[in-house]
User: Fold this.
Amino acid sequence: MVWYTILIQQIINGLALGSVYALIALGYTMVYGIIKLINFAHGEIYMLGAYFGFFALTIFNLPLIPAMLISMLLAAIIGMGIERIAYRPLRNAPRIAALITAIGASLLIQSVAQLTFGASFRPFPQVIPFQRIQVGPIFLTNRQLIMFGVAILLMVLLHLIVHYTKIGKAMRAVSMDKEAALLMGIDVDKVISFTFAVGSALAAAGGILVGMYYNRIDPYMGIMPGLKAFVAAVLGGIGVIPGAVLGGFLMGTAENLVVAFGSSTYRDAVAFAVLILVLLLRPSGLLGKRQNEKV
Amino acid sequence: MMKKVLIGLVVAVLLLSFSLPSFAEEPIKIGLITPLTGAVSTFGQSVRNSAVLAVDTINERGGIHGRMIDLIVLDDQGDATEAANATRRLIDRDEVVLIIGPVITPCVLAAAPIAQDAGIPLITPTGTGDTITEIGDMIFRAAYKDSFQGQMMARFAREVLELEQAAIIYDVANDYSTGLMNSFRDTFIELGGEIVRVESYTTNDSDFSAQLTSIAMRQPDALFVPDYYTAAGPIAMQSRQLGIDATLLGVDGWDSPAIHELAGGYEVGAYIVNHYSPDDETPSTQEFISVFSARYPDAPDALAALAYDAVQIVEAALNATGGSTDPQELKTALGTVSNIQAATGTINMDPEGTPVKAVVILQMTADGSILVDKVEP
Assistant:
């Protein structure tokens, strides 16, 4: 096979992985856009989503789509719960306090998940029979297409919510200026809760997609994808929704190309090298607006 | 006043008479370190179940020279740091005379130096890493070495299956996987085969698509996957889905009931090297299987067989020392006991620490595995 078919094949693998990073990154970026908080517990919501999907599929024998919706709903509730319990009391505290609380929440959820679900790796039920789709010398799998398709669908849905609904308008208003939004009669708490709910639901969907794709879930599966999605959000410009999507796809592709043409040892290193480069060269990210620090 | 003194005396005598015999029959404390949770939990549970069964069997027969064995089980989660902590705890707090475990090579490599320094014999039932027994004279194992395992698989692939071009995907961060990769590669090349691609990943990766795509481009006729079932399962599945139709070759780390689901059934047809097969007609093997099946619902896997072996080796050594738990005597006995009719067959221990015994090649089927070949030492 010639080199460019290998390249295209690897990019396809990367885009499938990237679509999950993009889904997780959206949650980071939305929460940051609204309350300027890096929600480090977000990777754990993704893990919980995978487990909720796993139980819905195995114990309750639900078909894939209802299982996914239920998992997204439960994750949304947990996301709102974390915000209510861990972040809201600290809303006016220094930002570092909220950040450390987020790390604490992340560790807490990991440990509780290990206690309740057990630390063993679980095989994810193979609800969709595997199929290969050959396009000339290149091939896709139906699971890659589903991953990509579901991710794009959810992103379009998010775009519609943010730009064409009342709550979306309120979200944008709060992200521009919380105090002014409050003065205009917007229920800021409700908007923030809603943002956590949407972000968590997207992460849960990502968790199920990954479970299906890789056929393996465990209580620590959220750590690395969570960190990489965070880098994706920063790469795209934190707080900028299209930026998170772009960042996610770029990160997934970069990772796959590094493994394919470099060394797998650098799989995780590439993510953090990107983070350092972005922070040095373009701190506001690819699609972020340049802002001068106000003194 | 007199009455009180008398009562006191009677109580003292009673207490003494109760405590005296129990003093003489103080149990022999043995530690077991095994991953009951974590990424290789089925290994740990198999080992625990089997070791407990073996110890109970010894105790029911009246113990060793009248002394019961008290097995203290600790979970290391398959994590090297936890394994080191557990070793220290068993030696310092529980004051065990011997440690069985840990189960996986990286954990053994963390635990063994501590036991060696403390002068407490340690026997890993299942650790196959070559360097384990080089740590010191207190360190033993009940399994074969990885270099041997890798050679056996390469030999079988070249001489029996007549495979020409092999690719390897291995965990670069795990000594077990790396050691196997090396010995397989060297032997395969030595026997005239060609290694067309070697790809690596790191522990806990779940995406192997980039590496497997690169391997698929080379269209090998064999794919060697030297790792535990938690990685080997998904690799087997992803390799088939990415269009690799090579014969899958595995190792003892594949031996888990969980692999069938983790591999989505794609592991069927793969060949693995293993320590034992339930199909083996050897009387001591069949006896082990019937004892195990009488107590537990699942058939014993190789991990269970090796754990049983380890306890039997320890029993033989304790019998050889006449029940003495002196570390030096125990060490000498562990290195010299021979002709033990154990779960995996006849075992002769070697002062270097590794037993001399047969290995088997199995083929994975939809409901377990079948014995393809048994190679005597």
Chain A touches chain B through 38 residues (CB under 8 Å). The longest strand of chain A covers residues 132-135. The two ends of chain A are 58 Å apart (CA to CA).
